[in-house]
Amino acid sequence: MLDVTVIEEPGAAAASLDPMRARLLAELAEPLSAAALAARVGLPRQKVNYHLRALERHGLVELVEERRKGNMTERLMRATAASYVISPLALPGLQPDPDRHRDALSARWLLALGARLVRDVGALITGAERANKRLATYALDGEVRFASAADRAAFVEELTAGVGALVRKYHDPSAEGGRGHRVVVALHPSLKAEPAAEHDEGQGEGQGDRPETVPGRDEPDAIES
To answer: Is the per-residue pLDDT at 217 higher than 60?
Structure first.
């Protein structure tokens, strides 16, 4: 079982979003039979088998073991991953295009970049698995608490300059056999664990998206470099 995998096919996405099938996927973190699943979710075994066949057809569950029980063969099924991410490829014609409107201060542009990241990395994982090769990636995740909007602006300025200097240092468009790599650095307010009475009023910079504050969250403005 994979920790996380990307759903690219529209039919698989639809199957995973069905409430009952999503419940079955969650239950199938461990191998279970249709009879055991039926007892857990309160459905007839025949109905559970119907859902399982659909999930198996889309590669969302897999057969782990077959066991003989009297005159019957019991099939133990398990989800193919602990969690799933739906790629924009599952919505052909509706994929966000970050190149359509570039705005480093726009939360929606950041969202479009994130969608492209899911799409591209998902496709790379699929290709690497088919070729039986390892995929070289790197990710950095952290959190910083700014004392003021001015500090945040200064951080963004230094971050932009630092990443830009690294790109200029290592980018070699004439390198034979070289391979291009995409660099995405994102900055956005952290989600709060509990709703709070006070919210960041968003003393932001620039003319990016400025949605109203959502209860339990910091203002969802974002800066991407």
So the answer is: no
- The SS3 assignment for 30 reads coil
Judge contact between 80 and 2, C-beta under 8 A.
yes
Residue 55 neighbours by CB under 8 Å, 6+ apart = 15, 21, 24, 25, 61
Task: Give residue 17's pLDDT.
Answer: 95
Nearest Cα neighbor of 203 from 187, 218, 217 is 218
Q: If you ran DSSP here, which 8-state letter would residue 18 be given?
A: S
Please answer whether residues 225 and 104 qualify as being in contact, where contact means their C-beta atoms are separated by less than 8 angstroms. yes
Residue 23 CA to residue 181 CA, distance in Å, equals 37
| pTM strictly above 0.85 | no
Beta bridge partners of 78: 62
Q: Measure the CA–CA gap between 25 and 90, rounded to whole angstroms.
A: 19
Contact by Cβ (8 Å): 222, 175? no
CA distance 1 to 3: 7
How far apart CA 27 and CA 41 sit, in angstroms, is 9
